[in-house]
Each structure stands twice: as structure tokens, then as C-alpha cells.
């Protein structure tokens, strides 16, 4: 066997750390995947020889650029923007854009790496990418957001294209921001093409894209529960976040007869023991998106709820199922143990890498139903893939057709996790299943291409 980083897991991780100094989120994401892949490729010499994991863990390219814009007071502001194109072996780069002050190259590299596996799991032809900027949309006027989006796209446009790289939304980027970016792309290139997804319905968007990530996460949870003869109906759910993914996950839990008792934002969480009903979810959507308000106001609006501030997280509230839907590393090992102690038996991640490595190990060891984001939150990018298909064919599918496709894709991902994650005693390690199934598809394509 030729000398290879793949021979020894610790040596491989040390190499990743050495080559990516200070990039803890990226190292964390690669470590979680490598722990499973090393077992799988132990007896598969072709993957070692071709250094496949080493190559997937090195982005094809990282583009970084300056984004200048002018605030409402006339001050010139300078932000940093990026697009990480991780891997396009099975299709054009595809993944969201995040605007948040915590965005760094490390965060976007971890997200683009995860996206590569997630997109492979959907069964659709999409590679992995991610972009964003350290821009804080909070407290900015709509005009400031528009100017920022236009400036961001004035650089990004040269790196993307319907068959090259197709961005979408993520934290801080929703329909409004996609509109501003698409408008600027079209203006610069004079090209009306499916270069972004999450577009408005009037200009090439797909039905159910907005709902797809949250709904998909609950469909995945449903699939996991079914494998143990259970259902969402009657289950108490703890959810973090109060943005796109959290509110739509909550909506689907409620529609299926479950009870949602928490939502959160970066300031804290609300606990509503009476249940967060559809009316209350609608209020949250309007309050957070259109009024850009805080989740703490929920407890003023609805007297049944209490607000827990200081950045408190909801994992101490007793529940049957938990859905972390806010951000990375929002659930640590201790919080994972608290969830288990309080009776939680299933976790479906709506966010990307919300559970830290300690927490992942706690859930894996407890053998609960635990779905990693790359499997359970893939519904969003899956419907983005369907938006690309509709744009290419210049047609649009009906809502019922898309709902059926989303459900089928989520159960297909569940099947893929079973194929590679089920052990001899019948237990399913969904993290392992998702990592191996995603890896294998990308790896086999890379083998076909030779050394490129
Ligand atoms: P939104 O911007 O709509 O909402 C983000 C939510 O998370 C807000 O409630 C926000 O609170 C909270 N949040 C963000 N950062 C932090 C932080 N550092 N600490 C605590 N809370 C935080 O984003 P989305 O709902 O779209 O995204 C949520 C997660 O889901 C992300 O991990 C994203 O990558 C992932 N995801 C999103 C998909 C999509 O289609 N949108 C697809 C797949 C995954 P606050 O308002 O205080 O900032
Ligand atoms: O993390 C994700 O999968 C997303 N933010 C959605 C990406 C997409 O291209 O729809």
C-alpha cells in the first residue's frame, strides 16, 4: 500500500489540523466524517490509493473578496465575502449563502464540506458549496441590506452560473435577499437563468422551497420513529431557533399531532407548556421575519409562556423529541446527557452541525434515534435541486407533486442511512450511514475522473 494519510485516523486528523490552523469548525466537521469513513475504507484499497477523503477535505477553491457598501448615514463599510466551492464531482456546486457576524472561512469550509455529503444523499446531481459574509443584517434598514446584497453579487457573479455554482439562502438570507442578489446578477449579466434558488414564485422559484427544510426534517423524524413503531402524534418536541427552519419544523410537528413547547433565538428561549400552535407559529414568523423582532416578545404576547434569557438554550426542557434548528455547536455533551436523562429518544437536526463532537458521541453511545443535519435537513437543498430542474425545463410542478417528491427524497435518504448504518443487532447509526452513503457516491465519481 502506498504511503497515505488514510492509513491512520489520528495521523489524518493531525494533518487536517496542521493544514487548517485556527479553523476549528472545519476540523470538527472533517473529524466527525473521518471517524466513520476510516472504518468503511479499511479494506477498500482503491479509496486509499486515490487519497479520496484527503481530496474531499480540501476545497476545490475558496474565493474571498472585499464587499464595500454605504450605510444610511453615508459611512463606507467594508465586509469580507467568500464562496467555498468544495467539490463538483456529481454536479454543479450547490449550497446556501449566510450573512452573520460569526461567518469566517472556517465556518463556510465546514458548511461546504457537509453540503457535499448532504447533496449526494439527496440522489440529485449537485456538488457542494457554501458562501457568505461577516455582515450583520440585524438593525440594518432594507435599503442597507439591498446595497449590501448588490455589492456582494457584483463580485460573486463571476464565480457562479446555472451549470457552475448555484447559491441559495441560509442564516440571514431569505427570499428578500435572494431577490436583491438575483436582480443584481441579471442586471450585470443580462442573463435570466437559474443561477440562484429560493427565488420568488413569479420569477422562477419553486413551490414549497421555503417550507422544505423544516418539513423535510420532520419527515425524516417520522421515518426514524416509524422504524420503532412510533409516530410524531402525541410527542412533545423541543425546538431551537425561530427562523425559516425552526418555524417550518414546528409547523409540521403540529400538523402531525405533536406538541412544540420551545423556540429560541440568540438571546434565549421561550417555553410554552400549553404548546406553540399554528396561530402562534404564524405570529412568530411575522414577528421575526417582517418585524425583525425578538423571540422574547413571544412571552409578552402569549401569557402561557416564559422567556429564559442570557442566551439560554432549551435543552433542559423535558421532551420526547428534539430538533436543533438554529446554528452550529448549539448543543454540547452535557446538554445531550440532560436530554437523555429527561426522556428524549429522538433527535433530528434541522441546523448544520448543531451538536458538538462530544454531543454526537453521547447520542451515538446512547443508541437513540439520532439524525445528523446532512441527512435530516437535506429537504431544503433537495427542493432547490427540483427548482433547478424546473428552471432548466422552463416549467413548474404543482404543489402536490413537489410534496410527494420531497417525502420520497427524505425516505430515500433514510433508506441510504439504513443501508450503511445498520449493525448486526439491528441498531441504526444514522451518522455513520449518512457519512458513508454520501462519501461513496462522491468517491466513486472521483475515482472515475482519475487524478484531477
Ligand atoms: P434564519 O436566519 O431564518 O434563522 C436562524 C435562527 O437561528 C434565528 O432564530 C437566529 O436567532 C438563530 N441563530 C442564528 N445564529 C445563532 C447563534 N449564533 N446563536 C444562537 N442562535 C442563533 O436561518 P435558517 O432557519 O435558514 O437556518 C438555521 C439553520 O438551518 C442553520 O444552521 C442553517 O445552516 C440550517 N439550514 C438551513 C437551510 C435553509 O433552507 N434555510 C437548509 C438546511 C440547513 P437570531 O434571530 O437571534 O439571530
Ligand atoms: O444548508 C443548506 O442545505 C442550505 N442552506 C440550503 C442550500 C440550498 O442550496 O438550497
Write the layout of secondary structure elements.
Elements (H helix, E strand, L loop, with lengths): L8 H11 L4 H18 L3 H5 L2 H5 L4 E10 L5 E12 L5 E7 L5 H18 L5 E6 L8 H15 L8 E4 L6 H15 L19 H18 L9 E4 L4 H12 L3 E7 L2 E4 L6 H13 L6 H5 L4 E3 L12 E3 L9 H9 L4 E3 L8 H10 L2 E3 L1 H4 L2 H15 L5 H23 L8 H20 L3
Parallel strand pairs: 3-4, 3-5, 6-7, 6-10, 10-11, 11-12
Antiparallel strand pairs: 1-2, 2-4, 7-8, 8-9
Helix pairs in contact: 1-2, 2-5, 2-17, 5-17, 6-7, 8-9, 8-15, 8-16, 9-10, 12-13, 15-16, 16-17
Brief account:
By secondary structure, the chain is of the alpha/beta class. The protein is built from 17 helices and twelve strands. Helix 5 links the parallel strand 3 and strand 4.
